[in-house]
Amino acid sequence: MPRAFHVAGWILLAGALAAPSTARAATHLTATTGTGKIVVAAADGSSRQTLGNGLDSFVSPNGAWVAVIDADETSAGAQNFRLQLYATAGGAPRVLAIWCQGVSWSPDSTKLACVDHGPLTSGTRSLLVIDAASAAATTVATGHFDSRVSFSPDSARIAYVQNTREFSNKGGALKTMDLASHATKTLRQHAAAPVWGPHAIALSTVKPGGPAGSTLDVAVFKADGTRFRRLTHFHPRFFQTGLSPVDWSANGKRLLAALGGQDTFEAYAVDPKRGGARRIRASVTPCALSGNGRFVIGGDNTEASYDAARSNVVRVPWGGGKARVLLRHAGSPSFNG
């Protein structure tokens, strides 16, 4: 499953990266190479440099920070997962013993959120909010969570989904939390994958049944829970689950989604006003939508989306058409533009 996350004006790929100069701080792309390096590049794929070793990277909206997920490869598989926070101004990263499967940055780039997927010593997981400057992590909730967390446009609240158990084909309760008071509101049930946009929150509605056990459709509603509208009525085929939101354009007029399932995560365009969805391009795993809504950034090999050596980072027009290769032999991109 994807992660729609970024470093301003850079492309990140796991590797050893020199801090970007001030002149480069306006471009934005990141990704992971086939050799396990995190790479940073300009938005067009030029000026590629290595940041360090890693599995995944996430650039902050202002380009000042890069969050990198890394682990040690052993004969028993990946061990000792950790989150590393790099300042693009330079210096050694701050390291936290946290296993995040995805990272969400606040729009003001001062904090990030993730679910710690470490050992279930207490039978529950921790939803964390981390200060970018100090790397101090605060547990704001415990339980079982969808891995997607999303910040409000003013960075003051988060939207997340809490489940009743670790794995559920019914989705969970979509909640919002005020980060100052920790006051929480439950807005929807049977939900997954919230993405907070400029005017509304997008989510997946989850209905048990279908070829993969659950059927997902995209819906939107206001942050106070009102004006709920289901936008898609997808009929998944063999081993497909349905549609999940990925990213909004800056003006809230375009909504990027993905068709998920076994060996499937393809880019779809959803109309947040009139509803309906169309495939943008086959075999493109989406990670982000450009702020102006003109382009989708993603990997070009859906079946090898986690094998960077067999994938490229590409840019595809919103209307579909030819993909432009930005980074070769790289995957899991992050984009902040």
Please tell me about this protein's structure.
The protein has no helices and 26 strands. A hairpin with a 5-residue loop joins strand 8 and strand 9. It is mostly beta strands and 337 residues long. It has strands spanning 29-33, 37-41, 49-53, 56-59, 65-74, 77-87, 94-96, 104-105, 111-116, 125-131, 137-151, 157-163, 172-178, 184-196, 201-208, 214-221, 229-230, 240-248, 255-261, 264-270, 277-281, 285-289, 295-299, 313-317, 324-327, 330-334. It starts with 28 loop residues before the first strand and ends with a strand.
- Beta fraction: over 45%
Number of helices: 0
C-alpha geometry? globular
Find the count of extended strands (DSSP E, 2+ residues): 26
Biggest sheet overview = 10 strands, antiparallel
Report strand order across the widest sheet: 8-9-10-11-12-13-14-15-16-17
Radius of gyration: 18 Å
Helix content: under 10%
Helices and strands in order:
Elements: E1 29-33, E2 37-41, E3 49-53, E4 56-59, E5 65-74, E6 77-87, E7 94-96, E8 104-105, E9 111-116, E10 125-131, E11 137-151, E12 157-163, E13 172-178, E14 184-196, E15 201-208, E16 214-221, E17 229-230, E18 240-248, E19 255-261, E20 264-270, E21 277-281, E22 285-289, E23 295-299, E24 313-317, E25 324-327, E26 330-334
Antiparallel strand pairs: 1-2, 1-26, 2-3, 4-5, 5-6, 6-7, 8-9, 9-10, 10-11, 11-12, 12-13, 13-14, 14-15, 15-16, 16-17, 18-19, 19-20, 20-21, 22-23, 23-24, 24-25
